[in-house]
């Protein structure tokens, strides 16, 4: 007999099953462990021991079995290694998006739409009468011929200016964005984890663009001693290395990527916590961690000026409070006519998302 199953109300569970509650914790831990399933499950067992996440009816072993059954993790039958699946990678991105957007206030701004018609790529279903200045490409000939037949009869074809119907195209502010993430060693110095918030922002931004703005593009570049692109699916595994900060390499790669993008609006977001300390000259790495090196900073400022000429604004999210570093970022920002935010770790996501959404309101013809 099919009936109703009643369970004890748990205000912390918000109506979720025990598996869903544990899955939320598991997704969070995977971001901190760089996608290492074994380490994340080890942490979960420690949390379970301290906070009693499971009970006699549903244990951690049941949770692991259900993770496998539902396709969140898969085990290598040869060496026993357990890895997350693409389903989990997307789940982490969605979780990051919900976490960051949950902190933002509701607003009607930030969408793609504009009230002005323009040279867009989506045809408006409605037509209007011809006006002086309309181009030949805007004429809807099918509707215009129908108007001529209605207005003048079908016996002798005669088309006049009043018969012409114009079909407009809706303008959409498509944007190509490059997100630069500093993965130098300073991102985990002094016991402060700065790379995890940066990863969460990158995963949330990628999920937002792929689901809400599919015609936009997002490329992610990480930079240490060198710079290289990473794919969206690789974000959970991103780690800090024993690197200096080669901001120049990151900017050069970001500019190269944007040159190949066809969208009219282009921008660079850069998340960094420290000063540029490295430059590659030929095969040699020129490094100086002791203060701002003029040779390195001048190259950064030159690239900022080049981006300004290419109409590519750079928005810098600085996770640092040192006054001399802030002065450099301000000079860098003024050179580019971009923007700078000196963001705390807990507000980093809100700053980036507000800036990205606000940029959607700009109209470029």
From TrEMBL:
<feature type="domain" description="VWFA">
    <location>
        <begin position="177"/>
        <end position="275"/>
    </location>
</feature>
<protein>
    <recommendedName>
        <fullName>VWFA domain-containing protein</fullName>
    </recommendedName>
</protein>
<dbReference type="InterPro" id="IPR036465">
    <property type="entry name" value="vWFA_dom_sf"/>
</dbReference>
<dbReference type="Pfam" id="PF13519">
    <property type="entry name" value="VWA_2"/>
</dbReference>
<dbReference type="InterPro" id="IPR002035">
    <property type="entry name" value="VWF_A"/>
</dbReference>
């Amino acid at each position: 007999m099919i009936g109703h199953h009643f369970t004890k109300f748990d205000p912390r569970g918000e109506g979720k099953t025990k598996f869903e509650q544990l899955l939320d914790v598991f997704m969070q831990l995977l971001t901190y462990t760089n996608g290492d399933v074994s380490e994340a499950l080890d942490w979960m067992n420690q949390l379970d021991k301290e906070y009693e996440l499971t009970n006699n009816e549903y244990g951690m072993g049941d949770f692991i079995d259900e993770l496998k059954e539902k396709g969140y993790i898969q085990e290598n039958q040869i060496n026993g290694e357990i890895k997350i699946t693409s389903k989990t990678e997307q789940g982490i991105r969605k979780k990051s998006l919900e976490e960051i957007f949950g902190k933002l206030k509701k607003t009607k701004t930030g969408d793609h739409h504009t009230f002005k018609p323009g040279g867009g790529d989506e045809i408006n279903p409605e037509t209007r009468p011809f006006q002086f200045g309309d181009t030949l490409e805007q004429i809807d000939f099918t509707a215009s011929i129908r108007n001529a037949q209605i207005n003048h009869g079908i016996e002798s074809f005669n088309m006049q200016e009043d018969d012409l119907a114009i079909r407009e195209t809706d303008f959409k502010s498509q944007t190509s964005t490059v997100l630069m993430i500093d993965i130098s060693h300073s991102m985990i110095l002094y016991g402060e984890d700065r790379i995890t918030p940066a990863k969460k922002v990158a995963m949330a931004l990628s999920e937002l663009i792929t689901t809400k703005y599919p015609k936009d593009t997002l490329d992610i570049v990480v930079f240490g001693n060198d710079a290289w692109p990473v794919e969206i699916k690789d974000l959970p595994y991103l780690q800090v290395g024993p690197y200096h900060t080669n901001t120049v390499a990151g900017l050069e790669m970001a500019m190269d990527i944007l040159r190949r993008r066809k969208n009219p609006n282009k921008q660079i977001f850069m998340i960094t916590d420290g000063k540029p300390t490295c430059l590659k000259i030929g095969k040699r790495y020129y490094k100086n961690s002791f203060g701002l090196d003029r040779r390195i900073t001048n190259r950064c400022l030159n690239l900022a000026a080049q981006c300004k000429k290419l109409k590519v604004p750079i928005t810098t999210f600085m996770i640092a409070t040192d006054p001399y570093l802030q002065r450099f970022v301000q000079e860098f920002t003024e050179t580019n006519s971009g923007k700078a935010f000196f963001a705390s770790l807990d507000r980093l996501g809100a700053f980036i998302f507000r800036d990205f959404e606000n940029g959607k309101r700009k109209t470029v013809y």
